[in-house]
Amino acid sequence: xxxxxxxxxxxxxxxxxxxxxxxxxxxxxxxxxxxxxxxxxxxxxxxxxxxxxxxxxxxxxxxxxxxxxxxxxxxxxxxxxxxxxxxxxxxxxxxxxxxxxxxxxxxxxxxxxxxxxxxxxxxxxxxxxxxxxxxxxxxxxxxxxxxxxxxxxxxxxxxxxxxxxxxxxxxxxxxxxxxxxxxxxx
Amino acid sequence: xxxxxxxxxxxxxxxxxxxxxxxxxxxxxxxxxxxxxxxxxxxxxxxxxxxxxxxxxxxxxxxxxxxxxxxxxxxxxxxxxxxxxxxxxxxxxxxxxxxxxxxxxxxxxxxxxxxxxxxxxxxxxxxxxxxxxxxxxxxxxxxxxxxxxxxxxxxxxxxxxxxxxxx
Lengths: 186, 167
Fold this sequence. Notes:
The complex is a heterodimer of chains A (about 190) and B (about 170).
Chain A: H1 11-18, H2 24-34, H3 38-63, H4 77-105, H5 119-144, H6 149-162, H7 167-185
Helix pairs in contact in A: 1-3, 5-6, 5-7, 6-7
Chain B: H1 2-7, H2 9-18, H3 23-39, H4 47-69, H5 76-87, H6 93-112, H7 115-125, H8 131-138, H9 142-163
Helix pairs in contact in B: 2-3, 3-4, 4-8, 5-6, 6-9, 7-9, 8-9
């Protein structure tokens, strides 16, 4: 329920009048009333003055702004500090997780890299692993075929000697051993 | 999208300042908004819809920042000094004292005003949006916008009346 001070003109009408949102006839009626009603005049003055001062507050704030907007503007020092703190926290978190992971997983030392790989080195490693996997798949297929074991043994040897750094080399060694055992039993 | 953003940069700035943030914070906010425009632009929207989206994103970003601060970023005495400079004429010490009181009163009222009232107030009286536009942007019915504008105006006027300050 809207507060009503004057019985003739509502506060809502006064606000609309102050904003110029009334018809000419309404404006005339309100103006005539305000001239004779002290409470409405005070309220109207307060409405106009409060908005005027508020707009000054807004305008002076805008005046502090440089005329051009730059996307390259450096962040404020406070923002910079916040960003730096975030980065530092992230690094600590990554280090913590990394240390915990190493402690928990106890990796084979031979797999620990001495240095960071370049993109080219990663590509070469991936290609070699793919070739080794292909060769291993061929060897596995041959070993299951009648009369194919001899060829499979040769392929397993190829994987072991040509791609010794790959996981497939270990698998090939295991499969070769298993195949040889089967042949001995036969 | 870049041109839409740059075409409305003045309005966006007004929005930021009106929401009680400084120019320094404002630049950070507008950079964030611009990044959103570039990274996740609204798809299949007309220009007017993009503008509404842009204003909405900026309003939300301002509210987030203001909630964090919970206060106006500027001092009343600085505003008073700028006011005098903008008018380019000197005023007597008594008048200056009255103005300082008025500024402090309005700043306090704006700071404590619920953002549901403050946001439409800034959009209408400083950014020149109509009630229907404000409703579209904030997802409110025009009647709700008018009610909030009315409540905001009355809140400011009452503080001014309590101070007994004359024009």
